[in-house]
Amino acid sequence: MIKCQQAVINEIYPDWHALYRSVSKETAKKLAAHHLVERWGLRCDAGFFAVEDADIAMIYLDAEGFDMYNLKLSEGRLPEAENEIVVSKGILNVLSQSGQIGDTITVPYQILRDGGLDFIQKKDFVICGLVAGAETDTKSRYTAFVSKAFIESEIPPEQVFYSFLFRVSAEDSVTTEELEERINYLAGQFNIPEQSVRINKDYLWANYIDPAYVPGIISIMLIIVAAGVITIYSIYYVSMAERVQEYGRIKAIGATQFQLRRIVLMEGMIVAGIAIPPGLLAGTALTRYVFSVIFKLYKNENQIVTLTKELVMNRKVQLYHLWIYFIAIGVALVTVYVSLLRPMKTASKVSEMEAIRYRDGQSYKGGKKQRKGYIDITVGRLTKIYLAGNKRKSAITICSMAITGLFFMVVATVLSCATPDEVANNLILCEYEISPVVEINNKEHPEREWGEVQKNNPLTEELKNQILQIDGIISVECSKGTYVMSDSFDGDRVWIAGIPESRKEQIESGIIEGNVTYEELTAGDKVIMDKNMLHWFPGLKIGDVLDVIVEDGRGTHRRQL
What we know:
The chain is an alpha+beta fold. Helix content is 47%, strand content 17%. Helix 1 (2-12) packs across helix 11, helix 8 (213-241) runs antiparallel to helix 15 (391-416) and helix 10 (257-298) packs antiparallel against helix 12.
């Protein structure tokens, strides 16, 4: 499974190690000359197509950047002239136009200028290349590629910033942590802020040594071995009580301690030898079955699953490896051997006289054993008699079953943390969410500015009642929020989310530091900061007073939180 994931990543993910956003042309030149940079490319976001029901970005990529994004042209070449463009069939469909190499298409677009999207313009572009595979899973997001000349003609030079894509020098034995340290060190040298650094962690995991990878696999194997040892040991311990006399007779006719140990060991290994082959065959069949189920469930809905199926079917990724079978056999034999150590010792220490006195797991040293009896027999009393007959055997059996159950519960708990329901509940309050469309600095749509949306909020009580009348709608829950600006947030806009009363207990129980009640939050002068906010603004702490600027549709005003 891991090898399949890594193969898919190498097939469709970019192969740059990291990306620095908002880098000037001069800084890019200095970065390119740095000894840690092995290979580099440039990207510049120009704007977006002005179309409905699709998100089409216009970007510039140089030849190295295009290749590092794992993109390939099905026809033509990259744009060079100001009016040249590379598109995909999906983009042409969205534009309701057709074209081949050399044809002209008319494109409505908005340029990223002066910190926002400028007014819509139209321009005739000549198709110089067609790119395949640029569409995403949603079929509504695309990328068109323009030339550097187009960037320079549309955007003022002082507003042209690049994304610097690069690979750092890396030897084969380097770990992902070491690579990340080099990337962050390089960013620090050129005063690139942390929020402008994006590390391609998936690609690093797939191609370099992840320190958590091997320990994780070993931990899983140790849990399996521990569960196997406990289960097998408990079985042999219980059966050992019934065979002590047998071992005593064998010893009486001349068997040595070594021979008795060997008898127990050989018996276990023979059973393992019989069990391992069908176990491996069952595991092999199960692997193929699991993959087939995944492919049937997702079909062509998910690009990663589709590519995985293609790689497996074309045998570019092997599901079965001989060395894994040998490891499985070795782990199984070691598990059996460890499980038999105590039974082997017990069998070898049995004396002839002790075996004669041995009854139901008890060695009688003389005298008559007394045990409590009952006139009236019930299931509970019978159970108590048998459990008390050999307390040690009963304790080991109960403990082994409890520990094995504990392992299952640990795994179940981990898996439950990855359930889609839990993930969805953390992302959205209900089954569906409606929110207003808000854009910042879009000259073509000033009505979508936050202040304008507040003046004419589309989410009215009338709309709420209309939604409630739809068949199948059980309830509608509303939550409020607003954008604020503050010097404490480095002048950035930050969203403050309101919590509906139905989530009162959840929010109060989720506070890990400090103390505040839901009623105190509704007063409007206290806020809760989550871990994401603390990551970007680590200097903030409980008790700090924030001077913020709030926009309420009528203007802006200051207040303290």
